Amino acid sequence: MLNPQRSLSELPKMSAASQVERAVLEEEFNWLLKEEVHSVLKQLQDVLKQEASRRFSMPTPGLESQLRQENFILGSSTMDQVKGVLTLQGEALTQADINLKVAKSSQVLHFQFREDKQWKLQQIQDARNHVNQALQLLTSRDDTYHFQTGAEVNKLMDAVMLQLTRARNRLTTPASMTLPELATSGLMKMFTPPMPGDVMVNFYINLSKLCLTVYQLHVLPPNTTKNFKPAGSSVLHNPGAMFELNNNRFEVSHVHKVECVVPWLSDTLVFFTISLQLCQQLKDKISVFSSFWNYRPF
Amino acid sequence: MSGNNLVLPIVLWGRTAPTHCISSLLVMDDFSTIITGCHDGQICLWDMTPELEICPRAMLFGHTASITCLSKASACGDKQYMVSASESGEMCLWDVNDGRCIEFTKLACAHTGIQFYQFTIGTQREGRLLCNGHYPEILVVDATSLEVLYSLVSKILPDWISSMSIIRSHRTQEDTVVAVSVTGILKVWIITAEVSKMQDMDPVFEEESKPIYCQGCQSISFCTFTQSSLLVVCSKYWRVFDAGDYSLLCSVPSDTDQVWTGGEFIAADKVIIWTEDGCSYIYKLPASCLPASEHFRSDVGKTKEGSIPPLVYSIASRSDKQLLICPPVTRFFFGRREPFHKLLIQGDSSGRLSLWSIPESSPLQPPSIPAAPAAAELPASTTVSLQEAFDKLTPVSAGIIDQLSVLPGKEEPVKVTASVYIPSQGRLVCGREDGSIILVPATQTAIVQLLQGEHMLRRGWPPHRTLRGHRNKVTCVLYPYQISPRYDQRSLVSGGVDFSVIVWDIFTGEMKHIFCVHGGEITQLIIPPENCSTRVQHCVCSVASDHSVGLLSLRERKCIMLASRHLFPIQVIKWRPADDYLVVGCSDGSVYVWQMDTGALDRCVMGITAVEILNACDELAPATVDALSHSAVNLKQAMTRRSLAALKNMAQHKLQTLATNLLAADNADKGNLPKYSHNALVVQSMKTNLTDPDMHVLFFDVEAVIIQLLTEEAQRPNPMLVSPESLQKSQAGADKGGSFLANKIFKQVKETMKETIKEHLLDEDEEEEEEMRRREEKSKSLSLLEYNLTMDTAKLFMSCLHAWGLNQQLDGICLERLGMLRPHCPISFGLISRGGHMSLMLPTFKESLLYQLSLATGRKLTLSDIVGKGTYGVSRAVTTQHLLSVISLANTLMGMTNATFVGEHMKKAPARPPRPGGTPESPRRTPAVPPQPSCPALQAQIKQGWSQLAAMHCVMLPDLLGLDKYRPPLLEMLARRWQDRCLEVREAAQALLLAELRRIGQSGRKDTIDAWALYLPQYVDMVSSPGTTTESSPQAPPPPDAQPVETKAPEEEMDVTDDDITADGVGGHGGSSAILSPVVQTVLQMGFESSLVESLVQTKYLLSGQHYTSVSDLVSDVLQAEEEDRHTAPQSTEAEERQSSSSGNVRMQTPVRGKVKEPGPEELLRQLQEERTCKVCMDQLVSIVFIPCGHLVVCGDCAASLRHCPICRAIIRGSVRAFMS
Q1: Is A92 an 8 Å CB contact of chain B?
Q2: pLDDT at A141 over 50
Q3: Coil/strand/helix, residue B98
Q4: B931 vs A131, residue with greater confidence
Q5: Which of residues 164-193 of B touch A (CB under 8 A)?
Q6: Which residues does chain B have within 8 Å of residue A2's beta carbon, measured at their own beta carbons?
Q7: Chain centroid to CA B1110: how far?
Q8: Burial (0-12, 13-18, 19+ Cβ within 10 Å), B1059
Q9: Which of B425, B702, B866, B1068 falls 20 to 30 Å from B1204 in CA-CA distance?
């Protein structure tokens, strides 16, 4: 049936054969809808719940402090200008210590978060919310639910996959920001001692890594002959990128990026990939059958 | 195709209604329209009568992903706007009445809820949209520009907002926004007047943040009856809170297996709650929740779970429900005006809307058993699905090749599953469900479907060809030659669900080769870009549902590469020809880079790198993108072809600023745009969902039809045999064509134009002709009908547009003499608006139109009563487009010799005696037939027929139809075409505008001026300046609410408008203050020469002591003056002609007399230089004066190749060298 290379003369023979074949297929399809779909849904729930319960549980109001704190040391082996120690609690960075060695003066600047402040990593929150929405979709169809068509399963899988893809994308593609956006973000106001005007920091998640970027700036003199071209938005700006803020023109002179792997995030990404594949495989299985039901041969 | 072309779509929907899996619902305030959004991204408008009969009217296309929410976007009024948001972050503002897209934007994240909010400061009212979605803030967006103004931000535990509600307070200026976050925290923001005025991006922090422990909150709503309670519905329970201090008043859990998805107050003491599976329940609230009761707040602090309040009604979803593939959407709306309906509306995945009218009173129940288990069941008031509405139609909605597809013994025609239109041959290729492919002349088959005529009697008409080879459904068809001429023009490629790709010879119908390389059904066939290696250049790229991509060489007849084993469906294919890479983007965001030559997998990446690789491909070769998998994306692409410029703009400006652009597939809209712009007719197949059969949209480009008609007229063999009268006329026609083209070339491309324009034109066509001949020679074996494509297109188009049944005599002339045909039933037209957004009338529109018109006229109308003329009662924008098209085409045809559609059928039926007037229309196609001398009298009659037709549509329509059945054209749309680059369209627009201005009378004109006055430059000066006490200067400011929307209304050609207004603003200053009056200003805006207008105004003042009080008076005087000028001094008219014909930009070149501000020296220099450059090559200095016309406009080189003056088209009898010193 699936071999298109058979010649047309074989057709009558085939359609006779396919009568039996079709009966078998129908049975198999029913099995797929009744048994297989639920087992895949169960698997998916297990995978995601495991993930959700570990990391992505909804914070219950008032119980945030019970979340485990983790410390991450961000640094790189090749350069030691920047070193950061960050404390991650749930989706927020509760403490941060940043040491910055300024090249020219060999003076070490030290910043940390103010006591009353913490920085929420929007990426983790978004990923959590997407996963929870996916879980809600999955739990809405429990074992007792009887799927009647392949289209129904496909629709459900599409919705789940959309949420999962979004969740994963939020972790794998950090927001690209322009430098003025970065300079005016609340992050700059969180430090004690306050950040000097020529230093900017940014935190984000890229894949399974917690990243810290420090930009050192210098002010461009107003009558500079240099061709001023404001940089667009980017995840990581390069030295030489320029921007204008409050009528001052700045240029990025140094960029330091340090990162540290968050082990549970890499697990999470793996789980996302597994779940997406489970969904896709189920869809593929359905599609094999649906081409039999919907488009009967002439 | 640039946005300002006049393009009219006509839709052939077929019998199957498009899939419409409803994802969101909205009822407009006047309860006459229901709007539904679906998972595939379309929006459907349904008309509702006061008796709750519903009928789908139109479908709006433009979103690329599932619609997440809909909201109204204007306060009650005559302008009805609504806003839609999609999963991919797009937002669109639509006009509900005619389906025009007014504004659109795209953000990085998706909105899940939008609420309209109007605030008032003094007399100023402004609309705002509050949006929540996959982000932790509430964005406040301007309701007309869709710009984000500011945001409402949480300080404490910020998280996504799952639902929000606006509490309006009548006591203070402050309105409150109450929202619940996904973690169950209630947030309160206060919007004061200061906040609303704020324009910068300073965030507004919440006033209060209170955990209310509502996990999985679905909806929150405010009781408008008592103004003191809030209903929060969560999936497992619903709760009522005090709206003052947010204390819990009552909490009701759900049954075990029910999931609640929303609820609303329906009275002070009753709520309606609905579940995910579509059931709804009406509960009577306990006394502790009723502010009127003495027990109000008696339970605060001691909520008892489990006490279920009495159930008043239960509303089950349909018992006989079809299989639903996802949960239905339910909403409750109540009317604030007559009729005070309380409506529960449900939309489900089969495109079905069900309505329940909720009665005010409770059913009579024995009081002894409160909350009896069997609460009274409320029957549905109305229920209808899209398919049911389609099925009810008689005649059924036509599909493009239905007459060829109905197999004997079967009811339903075989569905068309894939199709492609070949414009060069005018043929449509339709792949069908049963595996056959049909080749058919597109206009002929459309005529059969839409129009009545003798063809109805013939079986199997029009002649067609069937290709059989696929064993099952055909999923995609591709004609490579159309996209790139490097391919053999014989080959047609098709893919099917039988996993095979077949190459056909389109002329012989022979099956050339079958490729069987994929392990799944073929989903897409694509062409590699130009600069690939030669081997790849002769390949087509096939994508299959087994996630594989193949490069199939048509020349070598083998698969040169198969890239398979992708884990996820393929979403996008891009190319890096320089590196010999094929880049495959999958739906999960991963990117695979394949080497085309070796077939080796170079890389597989994810995340930012993947996005960067995809983006890099775009930068290298912007025209190599193709998005697959999602049908809506394909749709969008299809529409991109219609307005490339706008979309490109959008892609470049909007998409680059995205903060977290998810994956690069989004900006796939940019590319792969074959040039269709010169085709009068394009047939585009569309589907709303991948599983749907194709529906077909015929796009008529009016300008292209006119060009083609004029071209053919110009090519006509020397009309010496024809009477002198028609000779003159035809000359005029040809001249017109020439000058028109001249404009085009002047304006658009400053390319060298070494020959006369007409010659240029002829040359081009000779080439084409030759090619045609070659093709015809090749295709000798092909037995398809040969016919004149241009005339056929015009015939189809005119027949569809004519307002039949208004003038019996004219109808007779149209049928008999002009050869037009009457439509079977009202035709579904469409309307293209900004950015490729499109509104298409559903075939069921005629039902609701019938209803409306019957209501308006007070008598029952039948379908045949509204054939043709009915469309003029649909909407003002539609009327404008149609009248412009019909008048400009009729005028064009009037100028042609022998412009009747009867003729060309003659040559196909030589047995019958030839009609006296019937010269074959296409001399180039049938060169053997000598042109027959046509009877001059008949020629005159034909011309008279066209002129009557034009006259009727131009001036008589309002009177004939009656105002209740006629929506007048929009003045602003006509005014915008006042300077259209196509002469015919321009003339039609001018005539129509004047007719319309005359029709609306003085008061109407005054209203119009009042409405637009605010936007006219220097208007304020006029008010304050003395001496202008004409009655047209408005004493009171015009109604403020109509203003902001007016400006934005029809912006199809925004590029033109803005420039025009500013240019006029500077140029329009006159010496006296009278020149500043709005009347004069309006006329100046129209593009008349200011000196002429000024002198007329002054003359009038001197003679009568009065100023002009109406625009039309002035305009008619100006026109008259121009006319006189033209007669007295032919020399000077040339200059004027030039000014008016080169549309707009000339105004920059000829300095307007009496400018208040002298242009700067650079400006002057530029002008001088411009004046002195050759108008043909735009390079060298002018140096030749033509005799006798005296124009000094070209350089010596260019003059040598000219026979007519490019400015005035006078024959050049001699030339003199001139030196400027």
Answers
A1: no
A2: yes
A3: coil
A4: A131
A5: 182-185
A6: 499
A7: 34
A8: middle
A9: B702
Name the residue among B157, B185, B472 with its Cβ closest to that of A295: B472
**Does the model's ipTM exceed the 0.90 cut?**
no
Give the gap in angstroms from C-alpha A12 to the nearest C-alpha of chain B: 13
Asked whether the beta carbons of residue B185 and residue A61 sit closer than 8 angstroms, the reply is yes
More confident residue, B124 or B601: B601
Which range among A32-46, A57-71, B363-377, B868-882 shows the weakest confidence by mean pLDDT?
B363-377
Does B216 contact A at CB distance below 8 Å? yes
Question: Encoding tokens for residue A260?
Answer: 């540290």
Q: What is the rounded CA–CA span in Å between residue A246 and residue A268?
A: 41
Nearest CB to A155 within list B182, B326, B606: B326
Of B26, B690, B67, B20, whose CA–CA distance to B387 is shortest? B20
Nearest to A287 among B514, B545, B606 (CB): B545
**Cβ pairs bridging A and B (under 8 Å):** 124
End-to-end CA separation in angstroms for chain A: 13
Question: Which chain A residues are within 8 Å of B434, Cβ to Cβ?
Answer: 298
Q: Is the pLDDT of residue B122 over 80?
A: no
In angstroms, the CA B600 to CA B641 distance is 34
Distance CA B663, CA B1170 (A): 47
Contact B1083, B1093 (CB under 8 A): yes
Calculate helix-pair angle for B1090-1104, B1078-1085, nearest 10 degrees: 150
Nearest CA to B332 out of B256, B223, B241 is that of B223
- Quick one: CA torsion of B4, B795, B938, B891, rounded to 10 degrees? -10
Cβ B536 vs Cβ B552: under 8 Å: no
Gap between the Cα atoms of B966 and B187, Å rounded: 50
Measured between beta carbons, the chain B residues lying within 8 angstroms of A126 are 134-135, 160
pTM metric for this prediction: 0.77
Long-range contacts of B516-520, Cβ-Cβ distance < 8 Å, separation of 24 or more: B516/A4, B516/A5, B517/B542, B517/B548, B517/B550, B517/B552, B517/B559, B517/B562, B518/B542, B518/B544, B518/B546, B518/B548, B518/B550, B518/B562, B519/B544, B519/B546, B519/B548, B519/B564, B520/A287, B520/B544, B520/B545, B520/B546, B520/B547, B520/B548
Residue from A1, A266, A281, A298 whose CB has the most chain B CBs within 10 Å, to mutate: A298
- Residues of chain A contacting residue B160, judged by C-beta atoms under 8 Å apart: 125-126, 129
Report the candidate in A217, A173, A179 with the shortest Cα–Cα distance to residue A196.
A217
**B1032 contacts: CB under 8 Å, gap ≥ 6:** B1006, B1009, B1077, B1078, B1079, B1109, B1110
Which of B414, B417, B608, B663 to substitute to test the interface with A, most A CBs within 10 Å?
A: B608
Q: Does B258 touch chain A (CB under 8 A)?
A: no
Do A295 and B473 lie within an 8 Å CB cutoff?
yes
Q: Nearest residue of A to residue B499 by CA position?
A: A4
Q: How far is B1059 from chain A (nearest CA, A)?
A: 28
Predicted confidence band of residue A292 (pLDDT cuts 50, 70, 90) = low
C-alpha A210/C-alpha B1009 separation (Å) is: 62
Token pair 């379309």 is found at: B42
Contact across the interface for A169 and B589, Cβ inside 8 Å:
yes
Which chain A residues touch B276 with a CB distance below 8 Å? 140
pLDDT tens-digit map of B498-551 = 889 999 998 888 999 999 999 888 999 999 988 888 889 999 999 998 899 999
Mutate to test the interface with B, among A57, A147, A295 (most CBs of B within 10 A): A295
Helix (H) or strand (E) holding B559: strand B558-563
Residue B283: closest CA among B265, B303, B257, B297: B265
Structure-token pair, residue B510: 């022979």
